[in-house]
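Ticket #4471: structure output looks truncated?

Reporter: J.K.
Steps to reproduce: submitted the chain below (114 residues) through the standard prediction queue, then opened the result file.
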Amino acid sequence: QVQLVESGGGLVQAGGSLRLSCAASGTTFSINAIGWYRQAAGKQREWVAVRNRTGTTNYADSVKGRFTIFRDYAKNTVYLNMNSLKPEDTAVYYCNTWPGSGPWGQGTQVTVSS
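Returned output as attached by the reporter:
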């Protein structure tokens, strides 16, 4: 079993930066890839970024050039660096085993003010 816990959300101004964390525990050797997702109020959850175990990454068009997903192997944590934040980035952010195959947690709220 794999347990994932996201954290690091908060309130930031447009143009600011934020780093989200996804801490993994349990049978992490079974993880092929970790994805970040977000859900804005009144909208469906959408995929944002993914990183597989070899380091290959991919991003949604809406965040390319602004967001970066990477892993700290020592801490067994996957991060999402978010730069040049826009109000439309406001959402609850979740991490999950790709392609969203695990249970969804509470997520972490990111609010970007104008």
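Triage note (M.O.): checked the attachment and the full token line is present. The radius of gyration is 13 Å.
Status: closed, working as intended.
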